[in-house]
Automatic annotation (TrEMBL):
Database matches in HAMAP family: Ala_racemase
Family stated for the protein in its record: Belongs to the alanine racemase family.
Protein name: Alanine racemase
Coiled-coil spans in chain: none
Pfam family of the protein (one): Ala_racemase_C
Recorded catalytic activity of this chain's protein: L-alanine = D-alanine
GO molecular function, one term: alanine racemase activity
Length: 384
């Protein structure tokens, strides 16, 4: 049975985004492709091999189950790095497969050590340090213990990386905090080196930091949202445009995803009538509305009630009233040639103008991340 909407992934757009990201990085900076959150909703199993085809050989995920999915579909030469949650009982599997992972407290370090001894292979660890986000990461005093443990067990624990995460690099409001984090990170690296532990790969930058703070590139960057064709925030986009040395200012990113559905029904509504549940939308004139079989159960956020935009026959039209669980209504009063079955683009679109107006980036950046990652796993992902 077919789902009520379809997701198409454009490999040319992906390739062009990755080339753009690469063009911003120095020659010796490695690109790690962040594919957590089901690859930002694109479907990890579908898109990870597409990203690999673009020459990327390093992938970052959040958890062990995501690592498992990536591991299944990627060439075994690719490096996989788990940045977040792992059950203690899954650590052995990571070590066996040579999958790398963040450690951020002594308990995790000890579990890694035990697993390495048991499996008979070193655990390849990335030491996450606390630099100011106050989420996960070793504080200085905990690092002292860790250094001891690593030195005593150098055949079992391989400190491959040193890493941290910035607390909001996408907004200039956090500039001072980010600068402090960079400083603290560099100091920590020097301190570790002096104490006999020298991680090979320093990595701190997400998309926003990679764009706005080149000194955060270090040995590797962990880039998520940019690959998929979205800016981490409007500020980062404007900052990028402002620094361009050309008059020809265009968005270099291309949306990889096109999410589309179809018109399920059409209705004429008289002026003065409410449309949908309750009183959230009152027809000010006679209107024609189309129903679309996509709602919040399919990942179309209720926040987009009376706000969202979709594309029909190349025209941008507004969502009318509240987004329902499985349906929404849009205003097609001014669109010609719409009938049952006409394609409706929810995200993306082929025409140049459509791409920038049809997506949700303009409404809210947070929504970019949230809406994409909430796209249900069971909508088929098709490659073009
Ligand atoms: C999500 C995440 C990234 C990538 O973030 P983007 O803004 O999508 O580039 C990088 N590092 C860590 C630790 C993350 O959790």
């Amino acid at each position: 049975m077919h789902s009520t909407s379809t997701i198409v992934l454009n490999s040319e757009a992906l390739k062009s985004n990755i080339e753009f990201i690469r063009s911003r990085l120095g020659e010796n900076v490695r690109l790690s492709s962040v594919v957590k959150g089901n690859a930002y909703g694109h479907g990890i199993e579908t898109i990870a091999p597409m990203i690999e085809k673009c020459g990327v050989d390093h992938f970052s995920v959040f958890s062990a189950d995501e690592a498992y999915k990536a591991h299944k579909v990627l060439n075994k030469k690719c490096t996989i790095l788990v940045m977040g949650a792992v059950y203690n009982h899954d650590v052995e599997w990571l070590v066996e497969q040579g999958i790398e992972f963040f450690i951020f407290d002594m308990e995790r370090a000890q579990v890694a050590l035990d697993a390495a001894k048991k499996v008979g292979k070193p655990a390849i660890i990335h030491i996450e340090v606390e630099t100011g986000m106050n989420r996960t990461g070793f504080t200085r005093s905990e690092l002292e213990q860790l250094v001891g443990l690593i030195k005593e067990n150098s055949q079992h624990l391989k400190p491959q990386g040193l890493c941290t995460h910035y607390a909001g690099a996408e907004s200039i409001a956090n500039h001072v905090r980010v600068q402090k984090q960079i400083k603290k990170f560099n100091k920590t690296y020097e301190w570790l080196k002096k104490n006999g532990v020298t991680p090979e790969v320093r990595h701190t930058a997400c998309s926003a930091a990679a764009m706005a703070y080149p000194k955060t590139h270090m040995d590797m960057v962990r880039v998520g949202i940019l690959q998929y064709g979205y800016w981490p925030s409007k500020e980062i986009f404007i900052d990028y445009l402002g620094k361009l040395k050309t008059e020809h200012k265009i968005d270099p990113l291309r949306r990889v995803i096109t999410w589309s559905s179809y018109v399920m029904g059409i209705k004429v509504v008289k002026a003065g009538e409410f449309i949908g549940y309750g009183t959230s939308y009152l027809a000010q004139q006679n209107m024609i509305i189309a129903t679309i079989p996509v709602g919040y159960a399919h990942g179309y956020s209720r926040v987009l009630s009376n706000q969202g935009r979709v594309l029909i026959n190349g025209r941008r039209v507004g969502v009318i009233g509240t987004v329902n669980m499985n349906m929404m209504m849009v205003d097609i009063t001014d669109v010609t040639g719409v009938s049952k079955g006409t394609e409706v683009t929810l995200i993306g679109g082929h025409e140049e103008t459509a791409i920038s107006v049809a997506s949700f980036g303009e409404l809210s950046n947070q929504l970019n991340y949230e809406l994409l990652t909430r796209l249900p796993h069971d909508i088929p992902r098709i490659t073009e």
